[in-house]
Design brief:
Keywords: Membrane, Transmembrane, Transmembrane helix. This protein is mainly α and about 130 residues long. It is built from six helices and no strands.
């Protein structure tokens, strides 16, 4: 029953955001069909309202995920779990790669340049 309440709340929020984002579009569309000539008397308003309608549509779409996350606890837990596992696996891969790099650097440090030279200077055999 709790999940039904969450789903109902989610649906109400999604519908309200959709209606609020499209109210200006409905007004402008009705105005276009009723009296296009009077709408063209205000070209600045018309261009501005068309741009705002597009922007409001994008905002409404971007609000869907936060609405789902706030209203549905099960989905929120699953997404948190997913991102937690994703971050942990990336950290483990990063740690593994740095350990491999550090091990290679330690091996390279063991073979320093003084170890590659002979212990005594080269003698000239022409003497």
């Amino acid at each position: 029953q709790n999940r039904v309440k969450e789903a109902t709340r989610t649906l109400i929020f999604i519908v309200c955001v959709y209606l609020m984002s499209n109210i200006l579009n409905v007004v402008v569309t009705i105005w276009e069909y009723i009296d296009m000539a009077s709408l063209m008397e205000y070209p600045g308003f018309y261009l501005f309202s068309v741009d705002i309608v597009s922007l409001l549509t994008v905002v409404a779409c971007s609000l869907r995920l936060p609405i789902y996350l706030t209203c549905q606890s099960q989905l929120r837990r699953e997404i948190i779990t997913f991102f937690t596992h994703l971050i942990k696996s990336r950290q483990e891969r990063f740690m593994d790669s740095t350990m491999v790099t550090n091990t290679k650097m330690e091996k390279d440090d063991d073979l320093s340049s003084s170890d590659l030279l002979p212990p005594y200077p080269l003698l000239n055999n022409d003497d």
